[in-house]
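Hey, quick one: can you model this chain's 3D structure?
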Amino acid sequence: MTFKPTIWYPIAVVLSVANWVGVGFATGPMHTTTHAALALAFGLWAQRLRKGSGGSELQARLEGLEAEVSRLDELEADVSKLRQELSEAQERLDFFERLLAQGPESRRVGPQR
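Sure thing. Here's the predicted structure for all 113 residues.
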């Protein structure tokens, strides 16, 4: 069984509030001091649970965002490479279109007679 702050946080808050209410109904200084100390302890514990669970959640979100950013960087590099390849292919196509448009006579290599 694992310790889950999301379950224990509301319990700590309820215990803290119940002990603060108990301070008003307590009889005697020792009884009142005990309820006040318990209320303070449970309140501090609730704050610690809240910070701990929120921090791990934020850390998980941050790691997820970092993974997404690196994935987007990789995709951007791939798109850039594909654009360059497409540009080169278009240049080759333009060259061959110009070569075909010149006709058979101008494609000869060597001295003309």
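One thing worth noting: The helical segments are 5-25, 29-102.
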